[in-house]
Amino acid sequence: MCLILVIDDDAASLGLFKTILQRAGHVVVTSNEPTQALGLVQQHQPHLLIIDDAMPHINGGELARQIKQHSHAPIILTSAGARIQDPDYVRAAQVEHVLVKPFLPRDVINAVDRVQGAIKCTVSS
Question: Average pLDDT, whole number, for the chain?
Fold first, then answer.
């Protein structure tokens, strides 16, 4: 069980991620406001993050770079856009995995499982 922070400006996407991840046994914190991401990372210290690339005010790649300055938590970058399929963009964003929208619930779980294999998740009550 991991504590996962999901940042996406789309409420429907946040709800979908939360449902999928909670059903898989994870604790999920969501935010539709990317400007609050650093504070949420410090407050919750998530095991991993899922960040949408296409958001207002800041793109997910830049947000991931900022988060990596304060946290070693792995990041999954997600988007329907082609930019996250560019290896140079992904490398510059310092993310561990990308998830292209649209996706199936098993795609989300597989992405989390792949990243989770490199970390130890334990959530205390």
Answer: 93
Question: Which tokens go with 52?
Answer: 């949408």
Please tell me the distance from the alpha carbon of residue 58 to that of residue 45, in angstroms, as a whole number.
Answer: 21
DSSP 85: G
Rounded Cα distance between 15 and 108, Å, is 13
Confidence (pTM) = 0.94
Give dist(CA 63, CA 92) in Å, integer. 11
What's 71's DSSP letter?
A: -
Q: Which residues of 106-118 are buried (b: 16+ CB within 10 A; e: fewer)?
A: eebbebbeebbee
CB 3 within 8 A of CB 91: no
- DSSP letter (8 states) at residue 104: -
26 vs 123: CA distance, rounded Å: 9
Mean pLDDT to the nearest integer, 81-110 = 94
Give the CA-trace dihedral at 59, 65, 88, 91, to 10 degrees: -140
For the stretch 16-33, pLDDT in tens is 999 999 999 999 999 999
